[in-house]
Amino acid sequence: MRDDNSASVISTESLLDIAALRADTPGAEQVVHFNNAGCGLLAAPVLAAMVEHLQLEASIGGYEAAAARAEQVRGFYTELAALINCAPGNIAFAGSATHAFSTALSAIPFEAGDVILTTRNDFISNQIAFLSLGKRLGVRVVHAPDLPEGGVDVAAMARLMREHRPRLVAATHIPTNSGLVQPVAEIGRHCRELGLLYLVDACQSVGQYPIDVAEIGCDLLTATCRKFLRGPRGSGFLYVSDRVLREGYEPLFIDMYGARWVAPDRYQPVETAARFEDWEFPYAIVLGCAAAARYARQVGMDAIARRTPALAAGLRDRLAGLPGVRVLDRGRRLGALVTFAVDGWEAEPFKAAMDARRINSALSFRHFAQFDFGDKDVDWCLRLSPHYYNTEQEVDQVVEAVADLVTGRRAP
């Protein structure tokens, strides 16, 4: 699927040109980067967009540089909107996915006794935010049960929707602590049938899978740009549906960018998702995010969604065959996060041993995922997350490194 505006990294047969992708990725020859669920390696056009803007700020001034690049800044909204199938006015920039999530929560007028219905695998910061609302406002948090094979039981969640009529339904599309992909569109269908407000955390899925907010049926969606989208750190976004805007939801601490002070005792929120933004922007980062979204779309989200989970599946299968390794991912559908526990090692020494082999990875701990890790009876795991620009040879290298470590040494 190629047109004249497509990137050169896609062939006429819609196969990824891995060599070209890696040539566009300065870090690809420096490390084996299997920590894309933490931060993806920046592509050269993303880096260039940011550096060029910082140079312009240094040359002519920050305000003046923002004015000179106003059209490119608007590209952030058009690119992100095209990526998730909405209008530019439904997109708000945020400093992180957690910033976007907390800002969205602040717009909901919770009262004592209101219910938040969520899953046992929602992201740690989201779970803490829900508990904080319970502590401060008396909101109740209800967790839908999991299926025996892993992942939320959507039928049970739907029954809880009808029973509790929650003020908010929330689900994390891909939890940070495992390869599970939750059926967010199925949840969304039940929310639409019952008219319930629905918030989706797509932090790990944007840039890994095609995301269509109309298909998901969510009212709000949050994500970062630094992970599989391969944008800069300190960036994220919030999708706000027309329904939410029309019904007047606004953040608790709306500022001069999101509202107009129309009388001494009255303000008026702006009509778009900009009501969820602040006046100050890191413009170089905004431009980097726009470049990252544009790059992902040029590479092709369908092609990315085929290759990235396939690399992870091969890695997962091979790790599962190693003695002393326990792969932890469970669920009907698994994405590009591969988590496993190892016998005879503590967390930090094992990761340090992987680091010494120039293999980037991440650790997860029980306090990141109280339900999931409690069910699996593990205190920590290593997380590996390949992306489309990684190679099969790198998978071989990672598997060999893990095999060497788990068979060659046990912790004293």
Automatic annotation (TrEMBL):
<keyword id="KW-0032">Aminotransferase</keyword>
<dbReference type="InterPro" id="IPR015422">
    <property type="entry name" value="PyrdxlP-dep_Trfase_small"/>
</dbReference>
<feature type="domain" description="Aminotransferase class V">
    <location>
        <begin position="34"/>
        <end position="398"/>
    </location>
</feature>
<dbReference type="InterPro" id="IPR015421">
    <property type="entry name" value="PyrdxlP-dep_Trfase_major"/>
</dbReference>
<dbReference type="GO" id="GO:0008483">
    <property type="term" value="F:transaminase activity"/>
</dbReference>
<protein>
    <submittedName>
        <fullName>Aminotransferase</fullName>
    </submittedName>
</protein>
<keyword id="KW-0808">Transferase</keyword>
<dbReference type="Pfam" id="PF00266">
    <property type="entry name" value="Aminotran_5"/>
</dbReference>
<dbReference type="InterPro" id="IPR000192">
    <property type="entry name" value="Aminotrans_V_dom"/>
</dbReference>
<dbReference type="InterPro" id="IPR015424">
    <property type="entry name" value="PyrdxlP-dep_Trfase"/>
</dbReference>
